[in-house]
C-alpha cells in the first residue's frame, strides 16, 4: 500500500490532517476478520449468506478490501487510503467468493432504509456479476445501485477481471450513475496471480457509456489478511483498485461532507488526468487534484 499511497499522492491529504474521519463506508464482500488494523472502527456487521451474528470472513477478500479503504497498522508499516473512516460490513459472498444477486440487492436496500441511523456515505462493491446472470436480476441490481445513489450514497464498483476487450465490465459496474474502477496496472499481472495480462474490464458499455471512469492501482496490493490479527496478504484485481478510489472519496467527504454523489462524481471528473491511448476511461485520479477540483 505504500506504493499505492505514493502513486495517488495521498500524503497531500495527510499533511492537511485529512484521514477520512467520520466518513461511514459500507463494504459489500465476504465479510471482515477482526483485524487489528480496524480496531474500534467497525460499526456494524450483517451476514446475508449464513445469517450469523458475529463478524467473520471465511475467504479473506473482504478483509483485504476493507484494509485498502482504511486499515491502519503502524507496527506492520501498513496504512489504507482513509485510515480514519468508519466501516459497516455486509457479508454477501461465501467462502468461495460466490454469492447471489439477491443478497447484494437486499444489503443495499437495507443500507438505504436504515441510513438515517447509519449515515453511510459510500458503498464499495468489489463484486462482479457475469453477463450470463438472469436478465431480471441484472436489471434489479442496476436499479438498486442507482437508487442508493439517488438517496445520497456514493456507490463505487469494480470493473471486473474479464478484460481485455470492449464491453467486458461486469454488473453492477455498467450502471450509469455509479463510479466504476478498473486497474491501471493490469498489464503487470502474471499467471501466478490467476489473472491474465490486461485483466481489467473495459468499456464502453452496450449503451456506449464510458466505463470504467477511473483506473487505479490493483495489482500486487498488500493489505490485511485473515491469518492473524496482524496478518497481511497480497492480492490483485479490480476488486483491489475500487477500494483505492473509495478511500480517496472518503478523504474528499471529510473535507466536503455536504457533497452529493453527483457533486462528488463531477469533482472526480474535473480532477482526472487523462491516460494517453485509452479512450475507454476518464483517466487516473490524484488526491491533491481531487481535493482542489
From TrEMBL:
Matching InterPro entries: Peptidase_S8/S53_dom (IPR000209), Peptidase_S8/S53_dom_sf (IPR036852), Peptidase_S8_His-AS (IPR022398), Peptidase_S8_Ser-AS (IPR023828), Peptidase_S8_subtilisin-like (IPR050131), Peptidase_S8_subtilisin-rel (IPR015500)
Signal sequence, renumbered to the chain: none
Domain called Peptidase S8/S53: residue spans: 20-270
Active-site positions on this chain: 29 (charge relay system), 61 (charge relay system), 239 (charge relay system)
Keywords: Hydrolase, Protease, Serine protease
Record's keyword annotation contains Hydrolase: yes
SUPFAM superfamilies: Subtilisin-like
Family: Belongs to the peptidase S8 family.
Protein name per the record: S8 family peptidase
Organism of this sequence: Brotonthovivens ammoniilytica
